[in-house]
Amino acid sequence: MKPALFIFSLLGATSVFAASPGAAKQVKDEQLMQGNWIVASSRHDGEALPKQELAQVRFVITEKRISFGRIGQDPMGFHYTLDSTKTPAAIDITHELSPGKPIVQLGIYSLEGDTLKLSLAGAGKARPKNFNEKSATTFILTRAKAPEKKPKP
Q1: What is the pTM of this model?
Q2: SS3 breakdown of the chain: % helix, strand, coil, rounded to 5?
């Protein structure tokens, strides 16, 4: 192989591998987010939402969809995309109240073990820069544990 061609090939391979960690983390986050989540706390416009209300809300996250709602009621579903290469990591949530008119909410997320933080701007608003912005709605979720099975007597 000619030296120039070898160096060009090596540079091309390096750029492919250099881009992989962000893409790998994004796939990893999408996989790790999947499951059932309980709302540990939430704030809207800087005000904490009552714990007794939050105890009735559940989030279910699948590969490309977030659903949430009160226990016993039909959940609302949204499509989402992640960009873990941004700091803080970005999430975009899309839903339609009117067919053909998607609404996009820009947000940020942090996933650490069994804790997921989401901070979402209102529709048409700028993405939050941190989890303390008063104008955003912030959820702190904990992974729902499967109930322990009691041994039969």
Answers
A1: 0.76
A2: 25, 40, 35
